[in-house]
Design a protein that fits this description.
This protein is mainly β and about 230 residues long. It has one helix and 21 strands. A four-stranded antiparallel β-sheet has the order 5-6-9-10, with no helix packed on it. A four-stranded antiparallel β-sheet has the order 11-12-15-16, with no helix packed on it. The chain is elongated, with a radius of gyration of 23 Å.
């Protein structure tokens, strides 16, 4: 019983500390104070686990653990579960603003994601971004449309999807990021690329296309570093 009372006191303190929302969270309609102790903490949480503005009272945190938003220091509540303690906060809040379709991990541990998003965390990142273990960052100005596949080879990151520009320059559905700039792979592909793989200097793509580099290539093709086949 003492342990449960102490937990309630911790939650009440977190509610008082976290009554103001993080800057990136839109203002929401205030929540009325709980009529009695023991109501589920989920009743006063935003979808990202922060406390809704105006929330007061005592709530039951069963099924949740208390964490901290790395960007603001505000308390956040996350559902517990098998292996939950192994997840790092940076991947939970605030996340991307749209779908993630692809992910690749570099040998140094950097994680790259691609999808339909225009922002990740508090960073503007057009359809592709990098997590270095501490923070998110954009890859230049990114792409102009969806990324569906990613692959890493050494310091090079390859992206493929439905885009037609990379870093503001023409790059039809497949492009390479060398750590500082984007470049096209020849004249690229004529339709969407859904899959991507790298082996040495060769880049393989698959999708709904019929030409690669202007030559016939029915839905699968290879880039050898200088030409498509």
């Amino acid at each position: 019983m003492l342990k449960r009372i102490t937990f309630h006191l911790l939650v009440s303190a977190a509610l008082l500390l976290g009554s103001a929302p993080p800057p990136a969270v839109a203002q929401q309609r205030p929540v009325r104070a709980a009529a009695a102790a023991g109501r589920p903490i989920s009743e006063v949480l935003t979808p990202t686990g922060t406390l809704r503005p105006g929330a007061t009272g005592s709530f039951d945190p069963a099924g949740y653990r208390v964490g901290t938003d790395p960007a603001t220091g505000a308390p956040v509540f996350r559902p517990t579960g098998a292996g939950d303690e192994n997840w790092q906060d940076g991947f939970y809040l605030p996340g991307t603003d749209d779908q993630v379709w692809a992910m690749a991990v570099a040998s140094n541990g950097d994680v790259y994601i691609g999808g339909d998003f225009a922002a990740v965390g508090t960073v503007a990142a057009n359809f592709v971004a990098k997590w270095n273990g501490t923070a998110w960052s954009a890859l230049g100005t990114g792409l102009n449309s969806t990324v569906l596949a990613l692959a890493v080879s050494g310091t090079d990151v390859y992206a493929a999807g439905g885009f037609t520009t990379a870093g503001g320059a023409a790059a039809n559905r497949v492009a390479k990021w060398n750590g500082s700039a984007w470049s096209a792979l020849g004249t690229g592909i004529d339709a969407q690329v859904n899959a991507l793989a790298v082996s040495g200097a060769d880049v393989y793509v698959g999708g709904s296309f019929t030409t690669a580099g202007g030559s016939p290539a029915l839905r699968v093709a290879k880039w050898n570093g200088t030409a498509w086949s």
